[in-house]
Amino acid sequence: MTSSDAISNEQEAAKRNLWLHFTRMSAYADSEVPVIVRGSGAYVYDQHGKQYLDGLSGLFVSQVGHGRTEIAEAGARQASELAYFPLWSYAHPKAIELAARLADMAPGDLNRVFFTTSGSEAVESAWKLAKQYFKLTGEPGRYKVISRELAYHGTSMGALAVTGLADIKHAFEPLTPGGVRVPNTNFYRAPDFLAGDEEQFGQWAADEIERAILREGPSSVAAVYLEPVQNSGGCFPPPPGYFQRVREICDQYGVLLVSDEVICAFGRLGYYFGSERYGYQPDIITFAKGVTSGYSPLGGMMVSDRLMEPFTAGTATFLHGITFAGHPVSSAMALANLDIFEKEDLLGNVRSNEAAFRATLEKLYDLPIVGDVRGAGYFYGIEMVKDKVTRETFSDDESERLLRGFLSHALFDAGLVCRADDRGDPVIQLSPPLICGQEHFDEIERILREVLTEAWTRL
Ligand SMILES: Cc1ncc(COP(=O)(O)O)c(C=O)c1O
Predict the structure, then answer these.
(1) In a mutational test of the pocket of ligand 1, which residue from 155, 263, 292 has the highest number of ligand atoms less than 8 Å from its CB?
(2) Which of 147, 233, 247 has the alpha carbon at shortest distance from 186?
(3) pTM check: above 0.90
(4) Rounded to the nearest whole angstrom, what is the distance from the C-alpha of residue 153 to the centroid of ligand 1?
(5) 300 CB near ligand 1 (under 6 Å)
(6) Distance in angstroms (rounded) separating the CA atoms of residues 156 and 424
């Protein structure tokens, strides 16, 4: 069989047998499914050998970059020694070692790690913990969770109820009851009476959480879920003072603060945890993605002794578990991943280069379509607008033509993996591996400039 026969057989099977996630399968009826076969450093390669800069770290995952044989070898060693054993009633050495290492790294008193295999399971686990914790501590009415408009917290039924994206929820209603929405921190789209004063905007957005708690009844609210920098909608950093005010509100009403760091932990913002960067102490951190840099699936939540205390005596048990959570191979690979963070000072790399990343992306402001460049660390969103002065956005139809009809393919064809998204206003999202430097930023800027210039002429 020639290599072109093999590629065409693979295409046929990809279309016939494989179901891609969040993907219009019809989009591939007359075109090839992109097949990524190999990765090395910040680059990945498709079935034809074409190179792409992985400007999204896969899906906010590949912190240390691709092709790290030391992580692969750590996984192989673990699989030969003990491929699998559950964390139901038993422990295994790599899960213990990883839990202890994460406890050392985590902010404040978060020292108990409950592993999962994914971010949705981590979000779901935190909600279940909050509910059972309050039942055990004499506040059984607390079950609601507050989160922000447009925020993505996962797809399982509970996590979907925390998620703030109406379009991906309707098909699955009724959802788990108790999800309550508050405004996000999109300062570019701040209400007129707060435009121009970021700090005041932040206080207002935090106070909206208090108003929601009061509206719902404080004794019914269990937790507030917030990402340090909100991904969906296009990277909304917290205004100064926002998290400090949220912490005060949570303390005042006895509500747990869950920092959903599925994207923002493990160096994405230049710190092991995003909450460290913004100086707040969560009650629970949820994590996944970057903990293994994607070499194997793993997620989890970290909590303090205080939240675990009701489960430590007598017959009390947290009634929750997942077969593959804290998998030995994933745990071993997470440890090898964290070794690379230390050896190569990846946090230092992000901190010393993030201003250059921002400055390089901000060069794009000279394009008429670029309305806002926002983010932190190695995590940026570029909002596209029809009119820079009025900030007018695109109609649904224009957005469809711009994003799906042109940008998504054109950026990929030009050699850049990133995400063109219109779940809020249209944005391009970037989240390169933490090993990247100026040459990668320049390559990202060059490709975006070419493709966005072309996009403008097609409108
Ligand atoms: C903040 C946040 N929470 C939860 C999730 C869900 O994670 P997973 O896809 O691993 O279930 C994601 C995924 O992108 C996320 O960004």
Answers:
(1) 263
(2) 233
(3) yes
(4) 5
(5) no
(6) 21
